[in-house]
Amino acid sequence: MTTARDLLEKVRARLHAEHGFSLLETVIAIGVIFASLVALSYTATVGFGYESLARQRQTATALANGTMEQARGLAYAKIQTGMLTSDLAGDPNIVSGCAGDPAGTYRFLSCTRGAVPGSGEKIVHSAAATNPTAPIVPHVSTVTENGIDFTIRTYVTNDCTTIDGTTCTALDPYRVTVIVTWTGGRSYPTKLVRLQSLFYSPTGCRSTETHPYAAPCQPFFFGTATVPRGEVHLERTSGSAVGIRDTSFVSGDLFLPSVESSVQHEQMTDAQAGYTPTGIQLVDGSGTRTAGGTTEVTAAADTDPGSATMSEYDSSTYAGAAASSLSTGTDNVLTLTSPAGDSGASAATTESGAVNVCPLPSDTNESDGRPCAASRFQQGGDLLAALTLNDNAPLGTATLVRVGAPSEPTKTFADLVLYPESSTMLPNLTGCAPVSGADGCLEQSAVRRLGTINLGGLPSALAGPANWAGANAWNGYLVSIVGYADRVAAPVGRQVLPSATSGSAVPAPSAGVTGGTVYYWDPATGAYASRSVTDAGLATALEASSVTVTGTVDGDAVTVTISVVPGSVTTGSTATATATGGAGGLSRTEASAQATPPKLSVRYRVWINGGQEVDLTLSVNLKTMEARGLYAPAPLAGS
User: Fold this and answer.
1) Domain ranges of the chain
2) What is the rounded average pLDDT of the residues 433-447?
3) Calpha distance 164→167 (Å, rounded)
4) If you placed Cys at 324, which of 113, 291, 395, 616 could pair as Cys (CB 3.0 to 4.6 Å)?
């Protein structure tokens, strides 16, 4: 018997199994999962894009900060000078031609002030700002980081009334704006980072050249020691129709060497040293010719970050070239000769020591880590001016001028001293002796030595009067300067504490002629006489000196007269000047010392058979040697 239960089981057996998903259900489920994954992927992609943009912005911000720090590291004078005028054209952030502006006026972003700070302000620029001074000149640069190109632009603005000068006259601070833009990466409306800073330096310090950064003033020192280039000048005597017959001679010069050293120190330090070798110059109908040393050889060191040649140490040495000569004329010939064997050396450093050697050997090296500049030069042989006369009569050669080599070199020296020491260049003088905490002092000194200088020799075909010839250095010449030497020193500064009212001041400037005798022919006695180069009666004695020699050469009557030009003689001399101040009058704020060798002119004349053959003036000007210094203490609070 079949029951209802059995029938129900038979029906269920015919039905499909109910476990698992149908196809429709599976499709729907997959669709939902795909949509979720797409949404998640989009969200991740957007997030990664913003993360990339954030990294790019972070890089741009770092570049902007680095560029601004570069600008902060520049001397304030560089900010005042601003951008290069020719570098402004084509910049999308610079506009010109605004209403009411004169020609050459540029503004930042727009003609009027806008939402961006600095917009509408005038661009500070100068046509003279040609030296590269990153990041202002040039003001645009490009950097690639992680495959992204970043463009960096730097602007200096101020409502400045100077259009194309070197400084702004406005009192407002300068605004430096750095803008960094980039391309590539995720698209975004504005890929830009802008950074601004205001620059202002209060007045009161001595100079922005030595105090470039905004900071308290420091003691200021400047010192220089100079031995200028002495010379003997030859020319046709004024008013005479003849200089050297049958030549186109105009003038000639024998140049002695020059040396100089200088140090300037405050917030920034500058040291320079140099020398110019011996040389000659001849001017005739063919033009001007030079030989020997014609240019100065220098060494320079400084701590100016805006300098293209910033260097802690520099030096130079010189080994003279071969002898050189210049001449003019055919039968009558004037020849100038520059010697071989010259030698020179110079050194400049902001930190003297075992590595930065100043002065160069064999002078004693400074080792205190302070600024130093030193030069020296040794002439190697004779500077000569010789005249050969063979036109109307064979008179042979006359040595018009001879400048011999000295026994020791000429030197200059400048050195900042913070510790007691004797004078390096002048060991016979007392040096500075600053106490700990004092500003110290700047020593500048020079020593000069000259070889024998002979003027007015006779032509070789003519014999001089009795006592004219001989073995002495002055025999055979009308006038000779023998063994001249001088020295100068001019230290400045303060070697006691600023508040001290007792103690020792920096040594006073000093100058001295330490050697030198003038030998001259005395026609009254028919012999040579001599006087010191500083003798008060030197001018009177020399201006009476002359010699006249007559003779017959190859049948021609010859007369030679050599004489000192009246009114041309000055004696050797020295001079010093100084100023003091500060507490107790112990600050030596200014000092100068000068030494001047004797000066004179000789007239040289030759006649042949009554006709003028030669009429020259030989002028000796050995120039004034000087040491000079300035010191200014840092201003006290409230001053």
Assistant:
1) 41-199, 220-631
2) 89
3) 9
4) 291
User: In angstroms, rounded to a whole number, what is the distance separating the alpha carbons of residues 298 and 315?
Assistant: 8
What are the two backbone dihedrals, phi and then psi, of residue 79, each rounded to the nearest 5 degrees? -65, -40
* DSSP 8-state secondary structure symbol assigned to residue 25: H
- Give dist(CA 138, CA 131) in Å, integer: 9
Burial class (CB in 10 A: 0-12, 13-18, 19+), 330: exposed
The tens digit of pLDDT for each residue in 15-46 reads: 555 556 677 777 887 888 888 777 776 665 65
| Phi-psi map region of 555: left, alpha, beta (phi>0 left; psi -120 to 50 alpha) | left
360-390 exposure pattern, b = at least 16 Cβ within 10 A, e = fewer: beebebbebebbbbbbbbbbbbbbbbbbbbe
Sheet holding 611-621, edge to edge: 287-292, 279-284, 251-255, 231-236, 611-621, 600-608, 556-564, 546-553
Rounded CA separation 125/105 (Å): 9
pTM: 0.72
Place of tokens 């004034």: 624
Q: Distance between CA 341 and CA 526 in Å, rounded?
A: 38
Closest CA to 606 of 542, 551, 565: 551
Give the integer Cα–Cα distance in Å for 273 and 350: 12
Higher pLDDT, 159 or 415: 415
* Residue 382 DSSP class: -
Q: How far apart are CA 385 and CA 396, in angstroms?
A: 14
Give dist(CA 220, CA 211) in Å, integer. 9
Task: Answer yes or no: are the C-beta atoms of 136 and 68 closer than 8 Å.
Answer: no
The lowest-confidence range among 52-56, 145-149, 594-598, 632-636 is 632-636
The span from the CA of 114 to the CA of 242, in Å, is 79
Cα(276)–Cα(229) distance, integer angstroms: 8
Whether residue 261 is predicted with pLDDT greater than 50 in this model: the reply is yes
Please report how many Cα atoms fall inside a 13 Å half-sphere around the Cα of residue 398, on the Cβ side. 27
